[in-house]
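Worked example 2:
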Amino acid sequence: MFQPNHQLPIHTRALPIQIPTALENEGQNASSLISKDGMQNGALFRPETVIYTSKKLQDDLEMLGKMIKKHEDNMKSLKSQKSSIEESILDIQVSLGKYYSSSVPMMNDEGHAHEESEEETVQNILKHEKSAAGVLCLLKARHGSQASHLLLTKDVLGIVATLGQVDDDNLSRLLSEYLGMETMLAVVCKTYSSVKALETYETDGSIIKTSGLHGLGASLGRPLDGRFIAICLENLQPYFGEFLDNDSQRRLDLLKPRLPNGESPPGFLGFAVNMINIDNANLSCLTANGHGLRETLFYNLFSRLQVYRTRADMLQAHPCISHGAISLDGGMLKTTGLFSLGNREDIEVKFPKGRGTSNLSSHFETERQLKEMTWKKEKVLKDMLSEQALLEHARSSFETKKQEFIKYLAESSSYATQPQTLSPR
């Protein structure tokens, strides 16, 4: 006699499915993990088979997840390498651009040329007889180092035009034109108290002509006439970013311009603030907070002014220019949307020519480095293509396996709810 049949409960636990973000074990062929079980439903959905198959599918998904994670990590690393190499290439291109930008052949007696250029700058300042800059330069010419010990001038660093040098004479003229004569003749002071000492006033606000810089000018036979600019370093908002590594000039590590497509603009030679050379005497910290001339004076004068080889290069780079730009052929963009057109103006008071350090052997070495970095970039790009293909294949395999797992769980659950009969003993 047959016993009544009872429905056998088959419990299938829904296993959590997560789509990983990356991979491991690239040597495994992901597609081979996809199960092709041909068992009949009766055998496929036995309790012990359900547990085994579910575990197998889950293990396959986990392995594919690790593969995805591995390839995503590889892509992230390659992208970082590519970005670093591109930065190096841009630095080298800027260096080569400076080499090619020089409009004056390198001289053997660079030191002598430097001294002549400084003397020319001072002589041009002295032509402005009734200016504050002319009075201070005349004082220094007559009394030398003793002038800096006077109470009036002990915290006066000098005139803007005398506090920096530029390697290229053409660039010097352009930067001087960009700043304008009034700024080039500005008096630079360390502290606010030294600015106040330059000029004193009567109770009605009129200037006392016998004291301060006015009194000094009168005593030298050069009475001041008109306004002049005094710059106080300790009151300037300094640059708070990083500096270039291993750079004795403490140039600013500014973010280089990028076109909307991510590429560096052609013809970009660098930032004006970093093209000013500062004498060793002025490289040490100057303000009470430890800020030097570059990150105070020249950063406020030039900000992120970009320098390009040609006007065409500058105009092409217009989308990534935010603080103005100049080109070596006379182009000038003061700020975004403000173009300076017409013939260039020849400012007689310009920065003196610095002691150039470029030479032919270092130039050839720089070109070799550029070729090497370009080769490295091409290799990384090939590796990225290969890695991207592996990543897409792994993601596709994971999605296929996930759908198989979901389908299997649905079918096993459906089978478990159907009435089952036991075979007679």
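Residues 1-45, 102-112, 357-361, 421-425 have pLDDT under 50 and may be disordered. The first helix runs from residue 41 to 44.
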